[in-house]
Amino acid sequence: xxxxxxxxxxxxxxxxxxxxxxxxxxxxxxxxxxxxxxxxxxxxxxxxxxxxxxxxxxxxxxxxxxxxxxxxxxxxxxxxxxxxxxxxxxxxxxxxxxxxxxxxxxxxxxxxxxxxxxxxxxxxxxxxxxxxxxxxxxxxxxxxxxxxxxxxxxxxxxxxxxxxxxxxxxxxxxxxxxxxxxxxxxxxxxxxxxxxxxxxxxxxxxxxxxxxxxxxxxxxxxxxxxxxxxxxxxxxxxxxxxxxxxxxxxxxxxxxxxxxxxxxxxxxxxxxxxxxxxxxxxxxxxxxxxxxxxxxxxxxxxxxxxxxxxxxxxxxxxxxxxxxxxxxxxxxxxxxxxxxxxxxxxxxxxxxxxxxxxxxxxxxxxxxxxxxxxxxxxxxxxxxxxxxxxxxxxxxxxxxxxxxxxxxxxxxxxxxxxxxxxxxxxxxxxxxxxxxxxxxxxxxxxx
Length: 447
Description:
With 447 residues, this protein is an alpha/beta fold.
C-alpha cells in the first residue's frame, strides 16, 4: 500500500506548522497550490491537518502511553495522523496501521516497526475513547473535545455544564463559511450573482452578512470581489457601534479592515459616511490596511499608526462619538478556525491579556465624548477576558463616568440566548453556528 496523496500533503503541512510556527490555514493553502489534489483528497488533507493540530495534545497523550523514548518529530507527525484517524475519525485498524507504516518507511525505514506497534495499539484501544464519560469526567471531556483541561474549565465557567460541553464539542467541527458584502468594492447585485453557486443564505445579524454552503476559498476573491470572510458573530461589534452619518468613530486594532468596512457600510446605509479613524500599532499593518481600504474604495477613513494606550496624547480627550476596541485576546472563541492555537496558549495568557484589556479600556474611555460610547469586543469566551474586564474597568476610577448599556435592542431575536444578565453579547460556538464573540457597550455620562 502506498501513502495516499492527501496524507502526504497533510504530513508536509504539519511539518511546516511545527518547524516554522506557521498558521495552519496559510500553510495548507500553500500546499494545495503547490500540489493540487482532487476535491475529495483536498477535503481529506484539510480534515487531517485541522484535526491533528486541534487534537495534538490528546494525540500525544495516546502515543506516549505506548512509547518510552523520544522519537523523531517527523515520525511523531505520522503517529499523530494515525492516532487522529483511529480516535476521532474511527478509521479501520488495518487502514490506520498500513498507512502509518508506509509513511514511516518513506521517512525513516528503521522506524517502521515502532510505528506499526504503536499505531496498532492505539487503534485497538480506540473503541473505549475518550476513556471516561465526558458528561461527568472533565478529563474525558477534554480528550473528547480535543482541548487542554484548562480550556474545558474556561468554557464550562462561561456557559455552564450543558451548553459548555456542547460548545467544546463544536470546536472540533467544521466552521461555517460566513461572509460580509462589501458595497464599496463592487455592486451588491453583482456580488450576489457571483456567489450564486454557493447558495448564500441570509444571516440575522445584518443584511450584508451571508452564509455560504461552500468554503470561501472556492470563489474568486480580492479587493474587488465585493465580499470578505467574517464570522457572523464578529459582525455584532460594528453593529453595536451603530455608526451614524458624520459621526467620529475610532476603530482600534483595525487589522485587515473588516470591521472598518463594516462600520462604514452601516453608516452609509443610514444615510451617509461616518468619519472613521483606524488605529494600528505597527506601521507594516497600517500600510497593508491602507492598501486594502484603498483598493476596496472605502470612503472617509484615515489611518493612524500608534499605541492605543497613548490615545489621549494622540487624539486628545473627548475626540470621538464612538470607540470600537477589538481587543487583543486569547481567541478562545475561534478554536475551530485556528486549531493550533489551543495547544500554543498557556493558562497564564488569560490574566496577562485581561490586564492589557483593562488598561486599553481605561485609555480609550478618555477619548470618547460625553454621551458617546465605547464598544468592547473580543473573540474569547473567557469570563476573565470579558465580563470581568468590563466590571474591573467600571469599578476603577478611570471608568467611573461610563456605565454598561444593554445591547439587547440590537441583537436579533434568533440570538436572544447570547445575551447575558448585564445585557452584553456572548455567542456560544455551535455546530453550524457562529464562533464565540463578546461585545459590551459602555456609555459615557453627559454630566
